[in-house]
Every structure is written in structure tokens, then in C-alpha cells.
Design a protein that fits this description.
Structural class: mainly beta
Largest sheet: 5 strands, antiparallel
Number of helices: 1
Radius of gyration: 15 Å
Amino acid sequence: MSVRRSAALAATTLMLGGGLAMAPAVQAAPASAGSTAAAQRCWQDSITVPSDRGAVAYWECRRKVGSTWQSSVQIWVYDKKSDGKCVYGDVKIGSWRKTYKACPKGNNVNGARTGWHNGYDAQVTMSIR
């Protein structure tokens, strides 16, 4: 678990009750790639700062293929305020990086999957700009 995610989760745990039931608990975990991979571990997380402007929720999964660790993310990005700004969810796994953008309000990213990339941990950050 990345330090950024841990700090953001601790700071926002109390804010999640405001309609942030985003990610379906069973359907959200990225699918397994087959028999060459060891069992995968998955967990759900979210970032909501400040709660009235936007939110990012995601599942992160990790597996080991041979001697290489791989991670995968399924992400939801929500723009919750009509203020002319966008909400961005940035995902970095090893050297792979992608930014998901939600705006204007109501035009959200719903369950986009990154696929598997080499790296032990995914770093997911949220920004509003």
C-alpha cells in the first residue's frame, strides 16, 4: 500500500458516507489472467478530498508471475461539483502511468481497468484542476 493512499484514506474515512458507495464490491476486482499467475490479492480503496468536489475510488490487485510482481487497478473518478474544474485520478504502476479525467459534473470514469503492469504497488492520487 502506498504511503499516499494510506494518508489519504486515513484523512477521508469519515467523509465517505456522503453518497460515495461507488465501486461494486464483487464485480470491481480485475479478472485473473490465467494459470501462469499465482493467486492475486485485491482490495478496495478511495480518496475524497474535499468531499463536495470530487472523488476517486479504486480496486487494486497484485499478483506474482514467475519472479515478477504485477499490479492492476480498476478506477472510478467522479466530478461532483459544477465549478469548471476537473477531477483527475492518476495511476502509476512501475514505469507505467495513466491519468483518468472526469468533467464536467456527471461525466465520470466508471470502472476503467489498467490491465496488468510490472510493479509491486500501484500509486493512485487525486487532483482537482
